Amino acid sequence: MNKFEQLGLSESLLKAIIDLGFENPSEVQEKAIPLLLEKDTDLVALAQTGTGKTAAFGFPVIQKIDADNRNTQALILSPTRELCLQITNELKNYSKYEKGINVVAVYGGASITEQARDIKRGAQIIVATPGRMQDMINRGLVNITQINYCILDEADEMLNMGFYDDIVNILSTTPDEKNTWLFSATMPAEVARIGKQFMSNPEEITVGTKNSGSATVSHEFYLVNARDRYEALKRLADANPDIFSVVFCRTKRDTQAIAEKLIEDGYSAAALHGDLSQAQRDGVMKSFRGRQIQMLVATDVAARGIDVDNVTHVVNYQLPDEIETYNHRSGRTGRAGKLGTSIVIVTKSELRKISSIERIIKQKFEEKTIPSGIEICEIQLLHLANKIKDTEVDHEIDNYLPAINDVLEGLSKEELIKKMVSVEFNRFINYYKKTRDISASGSERRDRGGDDRAPRENNNGGATRYFVNIGSRDNFDWMSLKDYLKETLDLGRDDVFKVDVKEGFSFFNTDPEHTDKVMDILNNVQLEGRRINVEISKNDGGGRRDHNGRNSGGRREGGRREGNFAPRREGGFRSDRNAAPREGGFRGERSSSRREGSSERAPRRSESFGDSSRPRRPRRD
Ligand code: ADP
Ligand code: MG
Fold first, then answer.
1. Are residues 73 and 167 in the same domain?
2. Domain finish residue from 164, 179, 206
3. 527, 477: one domain
4. What is the predicted pLDDT for the residue at 604?
5. Where is the DEAD-box RNA helicase Q domain (predicted)?
6. Which ligand is in closest contact with the Cα of 28?
7. Is the Cβ atom of 49 under 6 angstroms away from ligand 1?
8. Are residues 224 and 363 in the same domain?
9. Residue 48 CA: which ligand 1 atom is closest?
10. Do residues 356 and 501 both lie within one domain?
């Protein structure tokens, strides 16, 4: 018997749960479901985003309503159209083996008459945004005077968005005897006020600590000069080739501008903000869900509804005005038990805010340095090699092989590999050769948190940086890899530092005195039957700085050029992940016509916005 069966759920729901693939209830589900099924009670449930609140109220509400009665029996209020549609969709999935249950979504930006018609056909459950609901009540298009259940989902978000009056008005037209279930990630005063006003003796459930961040999200900040913000963003994207992220800006204008720049520079990015039409926003979200967009640049308001699993990074391009908002932003990643990273790009004057956020989320930030050009090149190069290795061959290609073999005849395997990699890589390395180090110095926090607890002298002394062909794919994170290395190499507590784990490979530092030992031992070790390969990286991983706080590593390779902070990407390298037909990015026509040479050969993306018929990037779970 699985744990869902112990909660008192009906057969039809249990069947649907199997289809959903849920194996065990989440904590909020385990607490809320039996309570709501057994009792007619009001409820206040506090739980972070991504903890499974929809099912926590969705299963009980479906089980409790009377499917034979066509009256509206439950009203679910949620902050955005996106969420409304998601909840509706989920409820339909939950109730698929339950005959006669109708769930109707009611939200702005779509035909009100059509929604009214759907309701008239008999909707036992209405999922609505407060604004549109109020509108429908005013026009007499809906009757909620008989409801038994009212659910306020993401109550804090709704109040944040200024729906207080609407909510009060809506609740006033519902019967006093109904039960109200309030779900929220945080408990600000306004939410408490609604609770007091409209609930009697509510049961309370708290999952995790109030207001605290999710345990599956780690928090990092990167200190830069204000003029380098955008360059930093690009480097972070380049250092994470599989990034699937939401990038937050403060204003609509910045959101639009940054997205445009990214597109121009060859990234698969798109903007999401309130100045877009509903159809445009839908298109963007569809493409994001389909992973045709890797970087969704969004305002806080527009991103509220986003519930996309497997987001790898949330990037705070600018910190929010209200630091409480940080929690909502970072909750877009680390969902459903997956790990996620929330990154903040800060300038020195904003460092204070990092400490304030730490107090709110009750978690520490790890201070990291923006990867240097060389480190990024290495990451991309290994990523490319891994990708070549993992690529499945489409045998359509067989027809062309004789001709291709003719052309390449006489090249040895080694030469061929070098040339193949160079095709993609040369232009990329040329770009990064010219760039300078952009990590700002001067944080007093360098020795705090995460793996930056490196011995101080290494920041000046010069450490050896290695890369090694094991990574998160081998189930390492930076802590476990550090432990593994220390143990394998028989090194002391702080001898291995700046461990940076990527998917198929990782970087780490040691003092130069250990270099021989590392190379000797590690190159002769096997991990689950696979030979470990370690090499000395050209990059020193921020371990060495000159007086300007610049990474001397950047200068070794060709001179740096001032005044060239955000040169356009030359596109070539990026084609390894962005070239259609696999994927339709949102790259502007201009940037794609700029792309040249071999990466031009393949037919490219269709021009339409968010066409999901295009093949997609493989999902990485
Ligand atoms: P919240 O409303 O708390 O932000 P959601 O209800 O949107 O969270 O759930 C987040 C994700 O977790 C969704 O993709 C959902 O399908 C998934 N999920 C919910 N409950 C479970 C469960 N018991 N087991 C596995 N996945 C779940
Ligand atoms: Mg939710």
1. yes
2. 206
3. yes
4. 26
5. 2-30
6. 1
7. yes
8. yes
9. 3
10. no
What's the pLDDT score for residue 319?
93
CATH at 324 = 3.40.50.300
Provide the sign of the torsion angle of the four alpha carbons 91, 95, 96, 102, taken in this order: negative
Beta-strand relationship, 179-184 and 149-152: parallel
Residues 272 and 302 in one domain: yes
Buried b (16+ CB within 10 A) or exposed e, 180-212: bbbbbbbbeeebeebbeebbeebbebebbeebe
pLDDT at 417 (0 to 100)? 86
Answer yes or no: is the C-beta of 26 below 6 A from any ligand 1 atom.
Answer: yes
Phi, psi of 446 (to 5 degrees): -55, -35
User: How far is ligand 2, taken at its centre, from the CA of residue 356, in Å?
Assistant: 26
DSSP string across 203-272: EEEE-SSTTPPPTTEEEEEEEB-GGGHHHHHHHHHHH-TT--EEEE-SSHHHHHHHHHHHHHTT--EEEE
Residue 152, H or E segment? strand 149-152
CATH of the domain at 519: 3.30.70.330
Residues 272 and 367 in one domain: yes
- The pLDDT, as a whole number, for residue 444 is 58
Overall number of domains in the chain: 4
Interstrand relation of 340-346 and 313-316 (parallel, antiparallel or unpaired): parallel
Mean pLDDT, 10 residues at a time, over the chain (621 residues)? 86 95 92 95 89 95 95 95 93 95 94 95 96 96 96 89 90 95 85 88 78 69 92 92 93 94 92 90 91 94 80 94 85 77 92 87 85 84 84 86 88 87 76 74 50 38 84 85 90 86 88 91 86 81 39 31 29 32 29 30 28 32 34
Question: Going by CA atoms, what residue is nearest to atom 18 of ligand 1?
Answer: 52
pLDDT of residue 541: 55
Q: Is the CB of 22 under 6 A from ligand 1?
A: yes
| CA 232 / ligand 1 centre spacing (Å) | 33
Give the ligand at the shortest distance from the Cα of 47.
1
Mutate to test the pocket of ligand 1, among 14, 26, 306, 328 (most ligand atoms within 8 A of CB): 26
Q: Examine the domain organization and report whether 280 and 416 are in the same domain.
A: no
Residue 299 near ligand 1, beta carbon < 6 Å: no
**Would you say the CB of residue 54 lies under 6 angstroms from ligand 1?**
yes
Distance CA 552, CA 2 (A): 57
Task: Please classify residue 272 by burial: count the beta carbons closer than 10 Å to its beta carbon, then call 0-12 exposed, 13-18 middle and 19+ buried.
Answer: buried
428 and 471 in a single domain? The answer is: no
* Strands of 534-536's sheet in order across: 497-501, 506-510, 464-468, 534-536
pTM for the model? 0.51
How many Å apart are CA 398 and CA 493, to the nearest integer? 53
User: Are the C-beta atoms of residues 135 and 112 closer than 8 Å to each other?
Assistant: yes
Task: Give the atom of ligand 1 at the shortest distance from the alpha carbon of 51.
Answer: 3
Q: Tell me, using a 6 A CB cutoff, whether residue 25 lines ligand 1.
A: yes
Final residue before a domain boundary, out of 329, 345, 372: 372
CB of 281 closer than 6 angstroms to any ligand 1 atom: no
Structural domain harbouring 383 = 374-432
226: number of Cβ within 10 Å: 12
Nearest ligand 1 atom to alpha carbon 28:
3
Neighbours of ion ligand 2 (CB under 5 A): 53
